[in-house]
UniProtKB/TrEMBL annotation, chain A:
Its main location: membrane. It is found in: Cell membrane. InterPro entries: ABC_BtuC-like, ABC_transp_permease, BCAA_transport_permease. It holds the Pfam family BPD_transp_2. This is Branched-chain amino acid ABC transporter permease. The chain crosses the membrane at residues 6-26, 33-54, 60-78, 90-112, 132-158, 188-210, 265-284. GO terms for cellular component: plasma membrane. Keywords: Amino-acid transport, Cell inner membrane, Cell membrane, Membrane, Transmembrane, Transmembrane helix, Transport. It is a multi-pass membrane protein. One of its GO terms (molecular function) is L-valine transmembrane transporter activity.
Automatic annotation (TrEMBL), chain B:
Keywords: Amino-acid transport, ATP-binding, Nucleotide-binding, Transport. GO terms for molecular function: ATP binding; ATP hydrolysis activity; branched-chain amino acid transmembrane transporter activity. This is ABC transporter ATP-binding protein. Belongs to the ABC transporter superfamily.
Length: 291, 235
C-alpha cells in the first residue's frame, strides 16, 4: 500500500505548510501585507525548539510551547518595530521592508551561530505502525495530531473569543472596528503573535520530522506556504489549511511518480495556474461587499 | 453635554472643517444638515476619534476628547453609526450586536440589551443567525443602529440613516430615533433629508463647505427662506 504511505507523507508535509500559511493569511487579512519574514520566524522556531531539546534537555511538548511563545513575542516585535509605522505607506514599501526584515533575521542567525546545519535530536518515539499494509511512522501520526489540535484551537480563538472576534472585525473594516471600541493596534499585534506562534510550532515539527535545520531553511517552505495561502484564497483561514494540505500532497505525489527534481517546481506551477484560473483561490471571496 | 469649540480638521492640505463650534445639550435631538461634501461625516468622525482636529477643543461632559483614541471615546459613552452602515458583513446579526458591546463585560446586561434591540427591531430577531451582508439596506441600517446602542451610549451620533432607503423604512427608523431619545439618549443626527430631520429635531445646524452658516431651533430653520430654498426646495 505504497500510496497510503505517500498520502501520509504528503499530509505531514502539508500540515507544516498549512501551519505556516495560516500566519501569512491572517496577517494579510488584517493589514494586507505579505509578510515575507514569516518563513524566517518558522526557522527561528525550529532553532528555539532545537536548543530547548538539545541544550536544555526538554521534551517535545515543552520545546514546542517555548518555541511558540518566543515566536509570538518575536512576531509582535517585528510588527511593532518594522511594520507598524508603515500602516499608511504604499504596499511596495511594506513589501520591501518585509524582505529586509527577512534578510536581517537570516543573517543575524548566521552571524551568531554560523551557517552550518544542525541535526535535530530524536525526541519522539519513531516506531512504525502498520495500517492497511502501509507502514506509517508514529511521528507522522503525532505531527498530524498536533497540527489538528492547533487548528481546532485557532478556530476556537477566531470564532469564539473576544480577541478573535476583534481580529475578524478589524480585518473586515478597521474604522468600523474602532467605533466598537476595539483597539486596532493591539488586535494587529495579537494576529502577529498567533500567526508567529503557529510558524514556531511548524518549525519544531519540521525539525523533528526532517531532522536537519539551518538558517536559510525558512526560505523555500515560506514561499511554498505563501503559495498555499494563495491557493486557498489569501485572507481565508480554512483556505490556508486546505491549501497547505493540497500542496503537500501534490508535492509528494510528484516525487513518488519519480519526478522528485520537479517537486519544488510543482508549487510554483500551482501558483501560476491558480493566478490564471482563479486568482481569488479556493475559498477566496470574489468581491468584498463593502459599502 | 457636548461642546465643540473652534475646531479645524484637515485631510492632508484639504481644509475640511473650518472653525466649527456647536453644542448639544443633554436629552436633545440636534441635527446637522448640509449638501454633499459639506463636511458632515468629517465632523462626526472627529467627534468619535477617527480623525484628529488640528485646532480647537471638544468638551464632552467634563472631559476633553479631541484627539483621544476612538476606544476611549466609545467607553465614555459616545457611539457612532457610520455613513453607509459599515456592518461586519462576514458576521451574523447577533455577532454584530455582540461587537457593539465589545467594551462591556456584564454578560447578563449584554444579553438583556440584545433582547432590547430585538424588541426595537423585531426583524433583526428573525435574522439573528443570518450573515449581516445578506440583509437588506434597511435591515443593515437597523443593525448598525442596534450595534451602536449595545454600547449603552449617552450620546448617539448618526450619519445619514435615511441614505438609500424607502420612505416607509426611513419613517420607521426616525420613529426609533425618537423612541431611543425619549428613553434618555441624546442624539446628533446628520442628514441630507432635511425635511425629515427637522421634523424630529429640537435644534439644527447648517453646514456648507466646512463652515456652519446657520443655526437655530428646528422650527426656525424649517421656516427660514434660506433653508427652504437650499434644502427643502420642491418638497
Ligand atoms: N479621506 C479623505 N481624504 C481626502 N479628502 C476627504 C476625505 N474624506 C473626505 N474628504 C473631503 O472632505 C470634504 C468633506 O467630506 P465629508 O465626507 O465630511 O462630507 P459630507 O458632508 O459627509 O458629504 P456626504 O453628504 O456626501 O456624505 C469633501 O470635500 C471630501 O472630498
Ligand atoms: Mg457624509
Amino acid at each position: 500500500m505504497e500510496w497510503l504511505q505517500q498520502l501520509v507523507n504528503g499530509i505531514s508535509l502539508g500540515s507544516i505548510y498549512a501551519l505556516i500559511a495560516l500566519g501569512y493569511t491572517m496577517v494579510y487579512g488584517i493589514i494586507k501585507l505579505i509578510n515575507f519574514a514569516h518563513g524566517d520566524v518558522f526557522m527561528l522556531g525550529a532553532f528555539i525548539g532545537f536548543y530547548a531539546i538539545a541544550r536544555w534537555d526538554l521534551g517535545f511538548f515543552p520545546a514546542l510551547i517555548i518555541s511558540m511563545l518566543l515566536c509570538a513575542i518575536i512576531g509582535v516585535i517585528i510588527e511593532r518595530v518594522a511594520y507598524k509605522r508603515l500602516r499608511n505607506a504604499t504596499r511596495i514599501a511594506a513589501l520591501i521592508t518585509a524582505i529586509g526584515v527577512s534578510l536581517l533575521i537570516e543573517y543575524t542567525v548566521i552571524f551568531f551561530r554560523g551557517a552550518s546545519p544542525e541535526a535535530y535530536p530524536e525526541v519522539l518515539p519513531n516506531t512504525s505502525i502498520s495500517i492497511l499494509g502501509a507502514s506509517i511512522s508514529s511521528q507522522s501520526i503525532m505531527i498530524l495530531a498536533v497540527t489538528i489540535v492547533l487548528m481546532i484551537l485557532l478556530q476556537f480563538i477566531v470564532h469564539k473569543t473576544k480577541i478573535g472576534k476583534a481580529m475578524r472585525a478589524v480585518s473586515h473594516d478597521a474604522d468600523a472596528a474602532r467605533l466598537m471600541g476595539i483597539n486596532v493596534d493591539n488586535t494587529i499585534s495579537a494576529t502577529f503573535a498567533i500567526g508567529s506562534a503557529l510558524a514556531g510550532a511548524a518549525g519544531v515539527i519540521f525539525g523533528v520530522y526532517y531532522t536537519r535545520i539551518e538558517p536559510l531553511m525558512g526560505v523555500l517552505p515560506g514561499l511554498k506556504a505563501f503559495v498555499a495561502a494563495v491557493l486557498g484564497g489569501i485572507g481565508s483561514i480554512p483556505g490556508a489549511m486546505v491549501g497547505g494540505l493540497v500542496l503537500g500532497v501534490v508535492e509528494t505525489i510528484v516525487s513518488a511518480l519519480g519526478y522528485s527534481l520537479w517537486r519544488d517546481a510543482a508549487a510554483f506551477v500551482i501558483l501560476i495556474l491558480i493566478l490564471i484560473l482563479k486568482p481569488s483561490g479556493i475559498f477566496g471571496k470574489n468581491a468584498r461587499e463593502k459599502v | 453635554m457636548l461642546k465643540v469649540n473652534n475646531i479645524d480638521v484637515f485631510y492632508g492640505n484639504i481644509h475640511a472643517l473650518k472653525d466649527i463650534s456647536l453644542e448639544v445639550n443633554e436629552g436633545e435631538i440636534v441635527t446637522l444638515i448640509g449638501a454633499n461634501g459639506a463636511g458632515k461625516s468629517t465632523l462626526l468622525k472627529t467627534l468619535s476619534g477617527l480623525l484628529k482636529p488640528k485646532n480647537g477643543n471638544i468638551l464632552y461632559l467634563t472631559q476633553q476628547i479631541a484627539g483621544k483614541p476612538a476606544q476611549t471615546i466609545v467607553k465614555s459613552g459616545i457611539s457612532h453609526v457610520p455613513e453607509g452602515r459599515r456592518v461586519f458583513s462576514n458576521m451574523s446579526v447577533e455577532e454584530n450586536l455582540e461587537l457593539g458591546a465589545y467594551l462591556r463585560n456584564d454578560r447578563d446586561g449584554i444579553k438583556k440589551d440584545i433582547d432590547y434591540v430585538y424588541e426595537l427591531f423585531p426583524i433583526l430577531d428573525e435574522r439573528r443567525k443570518q450573515l449581516s451582508g445578506t440583509l437588506s439596506g434597511g435591515e443593515q441600517q437597523m443593525l448598525a443602529m442596534g450595534r451602536a446602542l449595545m454600547a449603552k451610549p449617552k450620546l448617539l451620533l448618526m450619519d445619514e440613516p435615511s441614505m438609500g432607503l424607502a420612505p416607509l423604512v426611513v419613517k420607521k427608523i426616525f420613529e426609533i430615533i425618537k423612541t431611543v431619545n425619549s428613553q434618555g439618549t441624546t442624539v446628533l443626527l446628520v442628514e441630507q433629508n432635511a425635511n425629515m430631520a427637522l421634523s424630529i429635531a429640537d435644534r439644527a445646524y447648517v453646514l456648507e463647505t466646512g463652515k456652519i452658516v446657520l443655526s437655530g431651533t428646528a422650527k426656525e430653520l424649517q421656516e427660514s427662506e434660506q433653508v427652504k430654498a437650499a434644502y427643502l426646495g420642491g418638497l
